[in-house]
Amino acid sequence: MISDLNILGWSQFFNGQLDLTEFDSLTPVRLSEVRRRSVVALTPALERLDIALTGDHVATDMAVGDFVLTDGERLIRVLDRKTVISRKAAGLAAQAQLIAANIDTLFITTSCNHDFNEARLERYLAIAIEAEATPVIVITKADKPEDMPAEIYEDRAKALYEGAEVLLINAKSPEDIARLERYCGTGQTIALVGSSGVGKSTIARGLTGEDIEVGDIREDDAKGRHTTTARSMHRMHAGGWLIDTPGMRELALHDASEGIATLFEDITDLATECKFSDCQHQTEPGCAVRRAIETGELDPNRLERWRKLVDEDARNSETIAESRERGRKFSKMVKSVKKAKSAKRGE
Ligand SMILES: Nc1nc2c(ncn2[C@@H]2O[C@H](COP(=O)(O)OP(=O)(O)OP(=O)(O)O)[C@@H](O)[C@H]2O)c(=O)[nH]1
Ligand SMILES: [Zn+2]
């Protein structure tokens, strides 16, 4: 049974979570769709299994890509995730929405044109590092670069993070798609992120042979949290899985302080040498970061991008308590305005 499961991306990481009774009586399956009150799971035979959610199991605790145990009818439990990608729900509620689970490699996609933007790439790099997925930067349209030679785009991407391979491709060329396939073999799960028009669908088609329509198919539950309703796991020619969910294309940064610290390790390291432990690297004396800028060791643009990313992360990482506090303050304000108005009217 276990060898068949490898097709789904099963590994020792998941195997180790089962006790003996579970081994004997339950089947691991992988979620390919998460609906409001049910999920669709893939079996090792690649059959689709519809499982209604009962008891304590709620859709918002599950993500496409999750491994779950089933007795054939019910879902028994969700296994711990190797990696998880989430985003903050819109509105006041500061709850994280699970977008996809157990992704091994994130293809961060951009093109040899105006879409190329270091800050945007760094945002996705921080997301991947935080999720513990391997980031790979894929630069498409190498066959028709705009404004500068394709190799310059490649070099600029390579300068961002040592831990990320950079692949310069023509997404329409099968030979170039084949260069991505070493991340896409049996047992591997990947996802594509990047702006509209950079070639994600073209790459997805090259890797799977399918035209994948993500569209806007979504269901909103009473609390405004969406659940994925389209089939989101696609088998690739190389044997692995591509996960494509609507949320994946709209990723925003949140709770990624560790990812940012790893991505900007040079700045993180320098900051430990600043005289003040809470140094903001502005005008403080004994600032190692500013000194590195003066000596040319650190690129001031890189420092600026780091600052913006840290700010963005902090803004989007508001805790549930903080969001409630903001809600309270707002309703207090509304009440006092109402009161002032009625006082004015002499009520
Ligand atoms: N010449 C060339 N054209 C490309 C390349 N990659 C993508 N294209 C073209 O660019 C256009 C947009 O590509 P898509 O694959 O639809 O982009 P996308 O990222 O999926 O866009 P969304 O679906 O809006 O998210 C299409 O016309 C592609 O054929 C490339 O490497 N070279
Ligand atoms: Zn400093």
Describe the structure.
This protein is 33% helix and 21% strand. The chain has 347 residues and is of the alpha/beta class. The chain has 3 domains: 2-80, OB fold (Dihydrolipoamide Acetyltransferase, E2P) (Beta Barrel), CATH 2.40.50.140; 98-250, Rossmann fold (3-Layer(aba) Sandwich); 264-316, Orthogonal Bundle (Ribonucleotide Reductase Protein R1, domain 1), CATH 1.10.40. The strands form 4 sheets. Strands 10-9-8-11-15-14 form a 6-stranded mixed beta sheet, with helices on both faces. A 5-stranded antiparallel beta sheet has the order 3-2-1-4-5. A two-stranded antiparallel ribbon has the order 6-7. The radius of gyration is 23 Å and the shape is globular. The protein starts with a helix and ends with a helix. The structure holds guanosine-5'-triphosphate and zinc ion (ZN). Guanosine-5'-triphosphate is lined by residues 140-141, 143-144, 170-172, 194, 196-202, 249. The site of guanosine-5'-triphosphate (GTP) has 16 residues, from helix 7.
Summary?
The protein is α/β, with parallel strands linked by helices. It has 12 helices and 15 strands.
